[in-house]
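Researcher: Next entry in the queue.
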Amino acid sequence: MQTNLYKGLELFFLFILLPVSFLLSYPIVFKIIFTVIGFVYILLLLRRMGLLRLRFPNKQYWRPFWKELMIKLAIIVIVTGLYVFFVAPDKLFSVLIKRPELWVMILFIYTFLSVWPQEIIYRTFFYERYEELIKNKWLFVFINAVLFSLAHLFLKSFLVQLLTFVGGLLFAYTYQKTKSTTLVSVEHAIYGNWLFTVGMGEMLAFPGVD
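Model: Structure for this entry, 210 residues:
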């Protein structure tokens, strides 16, 4: 049986040391190798814990989930829409208008090849593996959000760090309430796809229309 000390060291290496190391100057091939090793290690643990199966949440969570999501989404739409309008008005809905085929492709790729793996690692695995290490659930939500933001350090963007921290808080809160990878992935996909749609894609390292 793995001890809390082992899990603590594991958390440090996977979620702190590895992402921070991407800021260091060393061959990218080694960064890829270390990332793949970490990802495979997590997948093996998830498989051992029986958490790789697609499971739908209990019906009791769907209605309150959508109600809360619509409120949060409305706030995000207003804030980000105003931000793009005032900071980069030429980007407002630019991809949707100028390159709708790219817009559709990014929505699909982001939803299935980015959102799902992120939520499997940072919510499903992280909660099931480390929740017992920290008894204060709100502190755990905060730590999860900080580490989720840390995972995006390689993009070297303060805006990305801020948005992923706020997103991490929302996603961790949702997962803590529902324990559903499906629901938190739906939420993550909707927010992320909206950011790309409204015109923040290039700010967040997505392809642009130029």
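Model: Residues 100-130 form the longest helix (31 residues).
Researcher: Noted, moving on.
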